[in-house]
Structures are given as structure tokens and as C-alpha cells.
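Risk register update: the risk that structure generation would not scale has been downgraded. Supporting records follow, first protein first.
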Amino acid sequence: MRTRKNLFTGIAAASLLAIAAPIANQQVSAAQSVSSTKKLSKNAYVYNAEGKRVKNYVLKSGKTVKVIGTITIGKKKFYKIGKNQYVIANNFVPAKKYSAIKKSYIYNSAGQRISKKYVSAGTTIKSLGIKTIKGQKYLKIGKDQYVRLSNLTLITPPTQPISANTNPNNNQKPSQPVNNTQPSSSTAAPSVPSAGTTAPSAPSNPISSSNNDFNSWNTDDDGDLYTIVSNDILIYDKDGNHVLGKFLNKGYKFYQSDINKIVNINGTEYYELDLFDEDYYIKASDLNGKSKLPAPATNGEFTEDQKLISGQQAKYPNGYDIGTKYDLSSKKNRSAYDYAYRTAFAVVNDSRSSSNDLKRAMSELSTAYNNLDGKKIQLSGTKEDFEDNSYTLTAKEKADILALANKVTDSTNAHFSDNSTITYTIDNQFKHMTLLYLADFKASQYVSQKEIDDFKQKIKDKYKYGYDIGDKYSLSSPDARKAYDDAFKNSQVGTWMTVKQFNKIKNNLIAAYNNLDGVRVSIAGNQDDYTSGAYQLTDKEKTDILALVNKAEGATDAHFSESDHIEFSRDGKNQKTEIIYFISFNKNVAPASKNEFDDLKELLSSTYKSTYDLGALYMFSSKKAKDEYSSAYYSATKIVANNASSSLAISKAKSDLQKAYKQLDGKAVLINTDFYNFKNYKLTDQEKHDILALVNKCEGATDATFSKDEKSINYTFDGRLWTTETSYYVDYKY
């Protein structure tokens, strides 16, 4: 059995660690509706919209299926065939057909040759897919059966090319160029001898070389000539330059059939290898076991170059770590950098690399890096202006952005699908990227600490918490108060804000404050006159007060309920408030004249005396009359003592005193005895009646009764039992 192990090392191995991320993470595939029927070219699994296989659901090869749409799941194209049912599109594509250029052995999926099995030259083969095995591409022709793609030529290109690798970083050449000369269109199955039969022997010496005697090589069980590579061998390109990072490894079992042909490059004999997709060569003389690799670079050289491409401080990092310079370069320049990076990564991590290899690899990487020209379009407006539509892109900015999008995506039809999204097509599929991926807005201006401090001081001094403002807030409408409350609540500011954001908050608060219009109704009287009742509200003042209550309380039915209260309804409930909260007083009322003050003082000392000085007149009057006179007298004494009292207040005091004084009618009950004989005096029934009536009147009672000896009287007032002397209420006849 012919086993291929350790063929070569270098770029292929390193590429697994160094594939740069494409711009695809900014792209979204859009579903497209189609309606057609297609025939399956192979058995096909059915998947759901998440790309997960539907259990026990397989469509057989040759089945005609109605296709109702297309969608991309992950990186694969699917056809929609039903509700949440999808089939990979490749299952419908007509299979490629190839013709074997020469006798080609058949291998399994591990790259091991299946003994005695091969495909004869000229045989037409139907492709079941392409698979890379140990760095080489193979064509699948059956279950676990593969033939080297390099031994085949394409007969019928498919109507819709299928890429085995959709990574934009893939910089490999096609496995086999299209042959314009069409071989026979025979569709016969490959010739695969059954087990136990012997395949025809290969020619023992189909080619000859001045550097190697192939007849001295070993022969395997199948009759193929081979030799074991005794030293690592350099691999070259068609110009005789060492392909960086590629070697034919020591110990490799090299077959004569691995040689396509012998060529002369710059006077030196080379073997063109049948091992790679590219045109690679080795020097014929290197197979004689005497070749030596150039001296490897020093440890210091390796270390210095490794630092340039690895770690956080790398000068030439992996593509996706570079950022805009890489991301917004053309696809061609990105691919060139990816290839140069993979090559350099392989070279600096292979101890066989020479100083010249390192220099070449790093020089090519530096050139590829310098060719990256990704740069965002600089816009003339800020992001916040763009978002609130106060700034729109200019015609030139739009043109520059679309040109950059076409350059980055290798497209030609990029266009704006909305203000901030660019749409383009790749492989007939719509894709999208955001404006921010391609352009930078003008930097916003941020507010200074001084502006913040000044505004906070304003809030402390003027734009306070609502009810701390006073009437301007509390007597405004509910809507105006709410607007101010919201603006005040959102007035938190800091230097992290842009000037535009700061001004919006500040202006909102100022506007809300200015919309507060609460102000009391100004009445003509001063507070003393109003409180004492000397001043009575005018009809206009009453109307204005009710309008203010309706506005401030959000009501419509405010009305006066008492002399100092207003009632209204709100939210279905009756409410009550005091008038004094809605009025302001006239502080400019002139005081009364000296004569007016003197006249009132005279009345208080002569006629309208204190309750004590009035004696029985006050004492034995009704409780109501006494209360009214006490109030009028107390008010008058306050007014006369206040030098600012108005003429209206003094006039009202006189009027109230006069009215209250007239209500006083107190007089003791006259009994028919003198003071000295009262102790033994027996009251008449009329005298008893009059005395009890007087007690009830002046004490505000209704149940006055004599004690057993008639010398005292009991009565109830405010729920309490009181006792008084009978003699207090009588006058004696002398």
C-alpha cells in the first residue's frame, strides 16, 4: 500500500493559525424569492432555517423538487423547498465531469492508496465533490474513493461555479486549469478493478534524468519506482526561486510518478512535481542524497522577526488585528497581505529557514502592509447632528462612501438603501454594511466644567425643585408643573456630554421654567383689613380668584363655600382650599389719621370699655353677645395699637364695637330683701324663675337648677357640670 505522510511543511500548516477575518462580519445575506423546479444530482439531506438537519428526511438523487426561494445560512447557499425546509444548493448543480490525463490511483479519505485500484487514462469521471487531503486536492468518485485532482482535466464546466472555499483570504490557484480541448464525451464509469485483480504495471522508466538513475530506485508491490528522501529539500517556483516556507521533508517516499516532467531552469535540471496545485519544482540533483539546505538563520534573527508578526506589539499583525487600514483596503490588497502574512508566519516559525528566507518573507510582508490603504471617509457633520437630521451627507460624501464600499467589497453597484445602510450584491446576493463602518463623523464638542458648574449654580439659585419655587410653580397649571418636573428630573449634566446634549437639557429646563405662570390675584385691601373683615372682595376679584383655582387645581367648578374657603371637584372627589392661598394684599394702603386713632381710643376708654369695666351689662348678657363684644373689643384694641391701621380698619372697628355693644343687655335679678337678710330670705317663685333664666342665658346653658337650700345653682355646659353661687346673679332692694 502506498502511503503519503509528511509530504511538506510550511504555509499550509501555518494558515490554520493565521487566516485574517474578512469584512463578512459586517454583511448580512438577504433572502431572494424564486420559483422553479430543479433536479437533484445526488442524495440530499433536508435542513431547517437554523441549518440543522431534519432527522430521517433525505431526498433521493434524481428527484425533481419545486424551489420557492433561496437563503444563505452561515456561508452556504440553500434552496427553500417548503415551510422551514431547505436543501444545500450544491446538491442541485450538475456534477462536473473530468477526464483522467494518465493512470490515476484511487485513495481513501486518509490519503492512503487503495491497492490494485486505479482509473485508466482517458476515463470520464463524474465529480462527487472535491476534498483536500494532507494539502492536496482530490476528486471524490465514490464512497471513500478519491483521485488526485492534478491527474484530471475538466470536461464540462458547471453552469454555476461552486467554490470549495468562500474565504476571501484564499489566494490559491485553481486546482486544474480548464482544458479548451474537449476529450471524448463518453460518460462511462471509471475503470476500477475488483479486489484480487492485478492492475497493469506502470512503465519502469518513462523518463530519464542526468542526475538520477531511476532504475536503481526501489520498486513497491505495485511495480512503482520510489526513493526515500534522505534530506530536507527546497521547493522552487518556475523561475528557480525557493518557495518560501515549502520543503520536501526528509523521509518522504518519493515516487517517480510524482514527477510530471523534467525542465531546465537557468541551466539547471529540475523536476516539475505532481504533488501540488501550483507549478512547483525540485532540483533533480537534490534527490541524490547529497543536497544540503542553506544555513538556518540565527536564533536572534528568528526572535526579532517573530516579534514583528506576533504579540500585542506586532508591527505586522494578523489582518483583522490591523483595523481600518486592512478592513477598508481593496480585496486584492487584503488577499495579498493575508498571503504574505501566512508565508512570513510559516517562515519565521520553521527552524530550517535561512537568513535570506527571513529577509524575503519580511520584505514581502512589509510591501503588502504598505499597500494596505484602508481609510475611512471623514464627514463634515457630527453623529448627533446626523441622527437628529440637522446634518445630511453631501453629494460628494455619498459618492466617496459608495466608491469605498465598491472598493472594499469588490462590487460595482453599492448604493444607499437608507440613510445609514449601504447595500451591494456579491454573487447575485444582496449584502449590507453600515455607514459607520466606512465613515467617521466630525468629532463633537464637549461641555466644559465651568459651564457645568454655572448651570448647577443656576439650579440651586433659580431652577429649584418645584414647590421650592413658590407661587410661580404651585399656581401654574398641572401640565406646566409636570413639564417642569420632567425637565428638572432630567437636568443631570456632566463633562461627558456634548455641547448639543448639554444645551438641550439646559434649554428644556429654562423653557419649562418660563412656562410657569403662577401668580396670586392682587386685591385692593391690605392683610389686616381683609383678615378683620374690614375689606370685602369685589366681584372681579372673586371671579379672578375662582379662575385661578380652576387653573391651578385642574378643575372647572370652583365656587365660594364660606367667607374664607373655596370648594371644587377633581378626579371625582370634592376638594376644599383657603382663599388666602390665592390672593396677595395691597401693601400701599395709607394709615388712618391721628384724629381717627384718637377718636377710637376715646371710645374705648369711655363708652366701649373692657369687659371687666362694663360689669353687669357685659356679665349678665347672653353668651353670644358677650363673645361678639369681646371679639370686637379685642380687634379694636389691636387696630388702635397698630400705627399702620387704615381708616377702613378703624371705621370697621367702631362699627363692630357699636353693634356688639348694643347687643349687651346684662342685668341682675332684683329680689325683695337686702344684702344682710339674704341668708335667711326665701326666694319667691318668680325670683327663682328669673334667676335660673339668667343663668341659662349668660352661661349658655339650658338646665340650670337650684340646690336644695337654693344658695347655689347647678348647670351643664360643654358636657360638664358646673356650680355657681345664687347671690352672684341677684341685686338687693335697700
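Supporting record for the second protein:
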Amino acid sequence: MSTRKNVKYTDADFEATALKWYEEIESDGEGSEYEDNVEPISEHENEISESDISDSEIIDSSGSSKKNVILGKNGYKWSTLEPPRTKTQHRNIVVKIPGLQGPAKNVTNEFEAWKILFTADMIESIVGLRKHLETMSSRATYISKTTQNELVNCIGEEITAKIVNQIKNAKYFSVMFDETTDVSHVSQMSIVIRYVHENDIREDFIAFLDCHEENYTLDKDTLEPILSGKILGQTVLKQLKLLDLNLNNCVGICTDGCSVVTSEQNGAVQEVKKGMPVAVRCPCYNHALNLALSKTSNVQSVRNLMGTIKEVSAFFTASSKRHFVLKNTLDKHLYGLCETRWVERHECILQFKNDFDAILDALEKISLWNERDTASKAKNLMISLTTPDFILTLYCLSNVLSLTLPLSNLLQDKKVEKNRANEMISCTLSALKNKRGSASDCFNAILTETQNILKVLDVELTLSRLTNKMRNRSNPNPNLSSNSPEDYYRISLFIPLLDCVINDLESRFSKETINLFNLNICLPLNAMEATETEIKTTGKMLSDMYTLIFVEDPKTVFDKFKGEFDI
């Protein structure tokens, strides 16, 4: 055991070491970023023990020991090791020289600086406004909120009048309207007119209405201010009449797909058509497709599957820890059942099917955590995902969505042609009907694919409990001894799913709307290739639907239309 002794370093030693570092850095031509390895010492200033020195020794290349700590005047230990050379981080690099830029470089006085910020017209307007406020009477300044609102209304009336004149010059137009409740809990309806102006298609906003104020007054007789489809339709007709537009020239109506608007009994569209006899409703086809797919939730198994997938997605996104486990297992983002991004709805189901094993692995890892609530929730979700009903429903729904996904992508393309969209809709419906016609063969193929994953999960395909009366799903006859799990799921799941999608698509993509695509043969490019059958079909449709526009009998309209093609 060595005796304890104190060692002191002079200021000269410290200055010599610092100078040596500086010379080495200068010789390399660049500086180095490092953190001083400093820590306070005991109250015995300028003194360190021999044991401290021995702990801080290093061995150089020659094998001799060299002390790497010296003591400064301020009571801190300073390292004698050469600081590490590191690259400067990108965020610390100056990429733009600070200071004046552009015209500001030539500014020599305050006046020139003001000229850059304020143009001559701006200064003249400010000076003119000041003179007006100084010379006019306090009652004629025109700066009150009432006057400002009147000026805004006057500007709005001028703009609306200009738009109405353009619509009248175009003659034919379509109307788009929608009603919603804003953040201030006021029912608002927006009305947009679509027309052709100078060979350009325009969609101009013309009105923003409070539906309750337009149709009800605040008196004791008003018990319940209901906004039915009939009232919404009357509101649209009333506004168009105030604009002095000829309703017989309205050829199209565009709305969303809610029941209040589209109902055949008391819908807003039916009420509007009473004042616009030749108008045809043209919905957003992608919105219609999304609503048709949403209707699949009428099938109980599909509804349960949608709810379970939403719970799984919410479970992983609610915690960064869970999302980290999913990301490492899945290697990509898990799509959610978005209500507005319709392609994402397809991709969510298809991804869930393709990455089913990885999702189960992530849930299994989380179920082993010490966090009791999270582990319990993960275990319950695993049990829900590994039921035969969930797996078969997932594969059946994926089989249907694989047909509708290309249609959804096509309908969102800004440059899609109407004929191409019409063909795609017809092909999709035809493919779904073919599946329905050969439901047994299609379902057997799906069942074969499903059997593989059921075998891996050690899940047995069993028959659900059957009763004589079942209100929520189709059911084979429980008295027949030939009932099997295959027959049960085909009758209660696959066939109702196909029927639901097909019927809803046919109702939303009506023949009246799709037939309008036949008018494309009037375009010069298509007219040269039109067949005799297409010309007759389109001519008959044109003469029957738009008799009021042509003010002639249907046969005369048809003869003129066919004569144009003969020429």
C-alpha cells in the first residue's frame, strides 16, 4: 500500500498543454466539437491524490503511462486527451448568409425601406382614407360595422348577378346542393351551379342558406322545425326562382347519398324534380360505391368483423408501445377503416387478411406483458380473431372487395372517361353476378383457402347453434340432417353478402344515370365510330327525356338527331 501524497500542477503546465492542442487543431485546418470532461473536486484546491492519478492513467502506443488529467485554477479537472474529431451536424451548418437579401441590399435610408414594403398605390390609398376621415363629418365616415356589412352584401350581389348572367348565357345548367350543421349548431345549405362558360366547365357557388330561417319563423305555432327532404327541396327551388333562372333548363342534380335526399317517397331530389322535369340525378359514383359497401354491414357476420377490426386498429394506435411492437412485427403501417377514404377501406380488409399471422403474433407478444389491462385486452382480441366465423367472413369479404377495389381506384381518377367508368361499373356488376350464380364453387374455393389457416391455428370449423326462428341471419333448415358447416356459412354468409352488394350497386348506379353516358357519341371523335344501333338508342333516349327542352314532338327530335349523323 503506497503512501498518500499530493501532486500539484502549475499554470505553466496547463498553458503548455492547451497551446499544444491549439497548434494541432490549427495544423489540421479544422476545429473539433467536443464536450469538456469536467467535474468538481474537493475543497483542497489545486490538489489531487495519487490514487486519482492512477485511475486516470492511459497507456500510449509506446507502452508508457501518461496522465490524462491536469488541475486548473478554477478547481476543475481538465482532460489532456486529444478531443475526438466529429462531423458538424447538418442543422448547425449555415446554408444561407444572414443579412439583407434582394432589393433590400441597396437600401440606404428609411424612405427606401418603406418603398419596398408599401407601393405608391397603397400609400395613396392610405393618404386618401386619412383625408376622408379628417374632412368628413363623423356621421359620414362609413367605417361602422353596419356600413361594412352593407358593402360586403353589395359586393356579393354584384358577383351573384354576374354569375347568373353567365348561367343564362350558357342556357343549360346543373345544380349541386348539400345541407349540414356547422360548428355553431346552425343548419347551413350550400348551392353550387355547374355550367359551361366560354368552352370551360365552371362550378360557381351562389348561395349559403340557413334552412331553419328560410322555412320557419320563431312563433308559438312552431313546435318542431323539422328539415325533411321535401322542405330541403323546396328551399333549393325557392332560391333558384329568386335568381330568375329557368328551371326547365336544369338538366342535372348532384347530391350526396343520404336517405333524406335520395328517398323515392319524400326525398329532396324528388321534390326538386317536380320543378325541374328534365333534370337527372347524377350522384358521386365513388360515394355511391362506398355506401354500397357500407351496406354490407347489414350481414351480421360482416358487421361483427368490421367492429373487431376497428377495435384492433384502435388498440395498436392508442399506445406507442403497442404500435412499436406492431411495427417491428408487421414492418408497415396498419390501415384503419376510414369512413371517407374509400380506397383505404378496401386496403384495410385486404391487408388484414394478408398480414393476419403478423397481427396475431403482435397481439400474442403484448398478451405476455406485465401490464395487466393491456395484456388482457390483447388476449381477448386474439380470441375474437381466431374464431371460424371471423376468419371465414374475412376471406369472403376480401374476395368481394378484390373486385370493387379497381372500380374505386378508377372512379377517383380525375382523367377517367365516362365510357370507361360505365364499362368498369358494368364489368364489376357482371363479375359479382357470376359469383352469385356459381356461389357453391366460389365458396368452396374460399373454404379451401381458409382451411389452411384454420389448420395452422388449430381451429375447428364447427356449426353454429341453429334454431327454428332466426331473425338476424339466413339459416339452413335445422331439421335437415345434411346440414354442414360448409352449407351453413355459404347460406348465412357468402350468398347474403353478394346479394347485398349487387342489389345496392344496381339501385345506386341507376340505368337512368348510366344511359346519359351514351350522349358521348355526339362528340366528333366518337361520332365517327358510332354504330347504327348506338345512334338509334341515343336518339330515342334524347327525344324521350328532353322533349321540353327541344319544344318538339319526340319523333321530330329523333329524326333531326339521326339526320345529323347521316350528314
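Residues 265 and 271 are 9 Å apart (CA to CA). On this basis the risk owner (M.S.) recommends closing the item.
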